[in-house]
Design a protein that fits this description.
Layout: E1 9-11, E2 14-18, E3 23-26, E4 34-36, H1 46-61, E5 83-88, E6 96-101, E7 116-117, H2 118-182, H3 188-228
Antiparallel strand pairs: 1-4, 2-3, 5-6, 6-7
Helix pairs in contact: 2-3
């Protein structure tokens, strides 16, 4: 930004290179320059001008980082330098973009890594994103499975508890029946009939209890497997 906007003036920005032809060229140190502070009334406050200059310098320094999505992000695995994009056979039908280590032609430390094509960079990026997405999706699937199995375990435990209560009730009724038979308070025929009925109920409830316990153990194994292998 021109310093004249903040009221200063830089004298002799140009010079006459040839008085005969009146050729004027930019002064890049050929003759002395003079900087005059408060030469005229400022259009922009000096502190604002300085802030804008700092912003422009910052963006100019980092401008190359925004020319290509991969610029400054592809790092050489051998020397740690960044890869830069180069154009081969520019302006011809053979034109192609390649990426190579920026230290490949350094005088003292020439990097020996080979160049890669633009397609290779894009392919590697696509593969990385796909892999990351698949991993994230796998983790979410595992979390969903864990949550589902935990809910299933809670339901199974509730059902097993009811089965245990029913089993204890049947066993209690069997004990009462045996007590009645011991005191001859029930006939042999009635005892046999009730005993076989209660014994059948007891066996059924015990089998149900064992089945529910096995289902709970299986669900716990699935949760453990999901925790150790989140991407499956």
């Amino acid at each position: 930004m021109d310093e004249s906007l903040k009221g200063d003036a830089l004298l002799q920005k140009t010079y006459t290179a040839d008085f005969l032809t009146k050729t004027i060229k930019p002064n890049n140190g050929q003759i002395a320059q003079y900087y005059v502070h408060a030469n005229h009334e400022a259009i922009i406050a000096p502190d604002v001008w300085e802030l804008v200059q700092a912003k422009l310098a910052y963006h100019a320094k980092d401008a190359t980082s925004y020319k290509h999505p991969f610029c400054g992000r592809v790092i050489c695995g051998q020397c740690g330098s960044a890869y830069g994009c180069k154009v081969w056979h520019s302006g011809t039908k053979y034109q192609k973009h390649i990426w190579r280590c920026c230290a490949k032609y350094e005088k003292n430390t020439r990097c020996k890594t080979a160049h890669v094509s633009e397609e290779d960079i894009q392919g590697a990026f696509t593969q990385a994103v796909t892999s990351r997405y698949a991993t994230t999706k796998g983790v979410q699937s595992s979390l969903d499975l864990i949550e589902k199995k935990l809910l299933a375990i809670d339901e199974l435990k509730t059902r097993r508890q009811k089965s245990q209560v029913n089993l204890e009730q049947v066993q209690s009724r069997l004990s009462q029946l045996i007590t009645l038979a011991t005191h001859h308070a029930i006939s042999a025929g009635e005892y046999d009939q009730q005993y076989y009925q209660l014994e059948s109920e007891r066996a059924e409830q015990e089998q149900r209890y064992q089945e529910l316990s096995a289902e709970i153990a299986w669900a716990k194994e699935k949760i453990a497997a999901a925790k150790t292998s989140p991407t499956t």
